Amino acid sequence: MYEVGLIHTGRKILADVVVVSPEHFQQLIDESAPRFVSSATALVDTGAELSCISARFAQLAEFAVVGKRGLRSASGVFEHNEYYFHLGFQPATGPVLFYPHAIRGPDFDAAADSYDLLIGMDVISTGVLTVGPGNQASFRF
Hints:
Elements: E1 3-5, E2 7-8, E3 13-20, H1 22-31, E4 38-44, E5 52-54, H2 55-60, E6 67-73, E7 76-89, E8 97-98, E9 103-108, E10 117-119, H3 121-124, E11 128-132, E12 136-140
Parallel strand pairs: 4-10, 5-9
Antiparallel strand pairs: 1-12, 2-3, 3-4, 3-7, 5-10, 6-7, 7-8, 7-9, 11-12
């Protein structure tokens, strides 16, 4: 089981992550070449059912749209593009620790946000999220 420290600001929990498309994930494992890896900041969101990727990030990383999904919000249900991606957590030292499953997640508009991914309960519920005093937070998976 891996454990990674998270960034707890007192108001939100963030993670330094890398994101890789499924097309390049196997090459990354086989060749140990980080050329297809994109770094990002993720918000750990226990109120989100699904992990999501920003539309801007998905376009910049040239991820392929794999479908559409209706997402419910306070203002209604809206169709969003869906993408497959692999998520890796970047610890302070050492190699990237990849979540063991590909994620199929919709996009979201991150225009006003300082993060490009939401880590939702589809990922969080497969591990142990710990939030402690003194702005400590970690995730074990």
